[in-house]
Amino acid sequence: MAKNTQAFRLWCRSDRGGRYYYKLPGGKWTATNCTDRAVAEQAARDAVRNGEQRNTNIANARLLAAQLGRPFMQEDTPRGATLPLREYAADFYRWDFPNPPACPRIARRLQDRKRIGPEWAREQRKRLTEYVFKDSIADLPMGTIRRGDVQDFRSRLLVKLGATDPDSPRRKRHINLILGALSGVFAEAVDREEIGRNPAAKLSMGYEPTIRGTFTEAEIRALFPARIDRLGPWRTLMEKTIYLVGFTCGLRRSELRALTWAAVDLGRQEITVQAAVKGKNRIGKPKSGRSRPARFGNVTARHLKTLRPADPDAGALVFAYASGAMVGGTWWQYAWRRALEKLAIDWRGRHLTAHSFRHTAASELRARGIDDSLLMGFGGWQSKAVADIYAGHGTETGARAIADAMDRLLG
Known about the structure:
Elements: E1 9-13, E2 19-23, E3 30-31, H1 37-68, H2 79-82, H3 85-88, H4 104-111, H5 118-132, H6 147-160, H7 169-191, H8 217-223, H9 237-249, H10 253-257, E4 264-265, E5 270-273, E6 276-277, E7 283-284, E8 292-295, H11 298-307, H12 329-342, H13 356-367, H14 372-379, H15 386-394, H16 396-409
Antiparallel strand pairs: 1-2, 2-3, 4-5, 5-8, 6-7
């Protein structure tokens, strides 16, 4: 048995291959799994320091609980429950790849094969730092936060964001996203058995979402004249074609911006949707996480053939600036708004956005007898039977039916 030290004792067990054990005052022998005395002493000193920090946290949490008139936890409460919310969540939603993620929430979701990325983490982190950490709730120890505290935090958000009006669905949705980021912190603490329950669970605000508007058949034909020599309300052929492809092929903005000529088969009149922009021009997989085919009709084919360079480079973008760089989000918004305002379409009053093309396409195709399973594949929408949906859209008959229906719609 090693000699006593000031705060711990060491024991080198010869029957365990010379491995060291340490014992803190009033504690039990703990294995260090090492045979180096210096390393074992450092492990013991770290344990002493952590224990002292835990005692300090418990004392501070007990004092704050007494000031608030609340009961305190038991002495064997995990250390995480004694930490203020701000300190406990200090590393939450930090995306620090390629290094191992410091955020336990991200690490868990990646282990569970959830489709998350740096954009999602950045938005969640922004909600924590701009709203949660700047509120008084962040000063409370995790184990003392009650459901009422989160409700009070939600009320303060309502005032701060000006969403006291019940007809403010956009701001209430923003509040729900903030509460979701906070709930993720509590959920992780519950999973780790550091607190008993999630006080932010099921506290989202109900609201009537704004119903996105759709275009009429006449407006679609005015926006997309079938003849290649008529631009309609668009300034350039590229402006017209990018929205035409989005409408007739069911591509999202992120998929259109990342589309390359290598993914366009003009002979088969088919696009392989296999990439999408994931924030700040980073290219990743589509929203569904997998590629899908998208057939297009003769009208779209004529526009793509005219737009295509004589010999495009490998990986060249279909829709790009003159420099070859990817078109930006601002360009996308202004091009769309200019076209609608030129046709005197009240896009604000009718809640129309560029995404309305996807809703309009689905409505028009359904009205023309296209089966719902084909529609799901057309837009890349998922369901419980996602494999069957993609298989249905991949058939020649189904894909051709959608392309022909679009040609008829465009006249």
